[in-house]
Design brief:
The chain is mainly alpha-helical. Helix content is 78%, strand content 0%. It has 13 helices and no strands. Helix 2 packs antiparallel against helix 3, helix 3 packs parallel to helix 5 and helix 7 packs antiparallel against helix 12.
Length: 321
Amino acid sequence: MVAQCGFAAGVAWWLASTLLGHQKPVFAAIAAVICLAGGKGERARQAVDLLAGVIVGVMVGELIRWWNPGGALLQAVLAVILGMGAAAALDSRRLAHVQGAASALFVLVLPPLQNPGSRIMDAAIGGVLGLIGSQILFTPDPVGLVSVAARRVLESVEASLRSSAAGLEKKDAIVAAIAVERAREARSELSELAAQRMIAHRIRTRTLRGLRRAARLRHLEDRLDHLDMLVAAVLLLAYAAEETTSTDTEAKPDGLSDFLVAAANDAGTLNEVLAERSRGKHPIVHLSANVPKTLSESATVLAQTAVDALVAFAPIKPNPT
């Protein structure tokens, strides 16, 4: 973001000074920086708030300079009060209020211009550049954001399943405990996935690139809820494996470790498929995990839940164009 803001500020300054002949067009650079400094999916709205605040603030500042009500202290107080009040009447968001006050103060500090409207033009240039950057040039791919977060969940799920299998095969309680920790990590990463889904939704509804990727994002999000069920089942399987290695060292093999390895392979396959599909490819999905009939009743329920979640998450249709 730092590089993006620096680039946009430089271009805005160059355009205002070269094409319009404005001396030290600081409002152009400030407008570009503020527009791009917002969170993902918030930049377009921030650009509108900024322009509203700048326009009102410049007008208030010029009015106070013309009025000249008293000393610098009184002018500064009036600039803040009138700038924020006028901006609040035009725009309800806080950024516009702050920018209205700041712009009015800037006008009082900077040397007077023959054409006060040039500052509004500078801010418009910076705001337009900010909009171009936020809508087209610097907008993250919403499908990529969600895919990366979902892949982290699958990576932790795969690691937990493999550790549980290794713990059962070696009768190693420490390895089984590691599996529990990796399953807990997957549960924590579901929160990050939820946050990225919210950001992706804002990008989808507020940017041009988001609109272009909306169909693919919906196609992916239709399957994401199954990850919650998968992580819950894997965590309970990890607990069961840890308990088995800790309390029953003479237990006969029941096929659970083989199932866990197959399920881990399926999670790894889905991770790779998700990466390929985010790049526009359509690989064929082959899942291999099946629930052994030799498992206990409780283990059978958990294993079947994990299989159902893996199958439900697997993409069966090509990505929408």
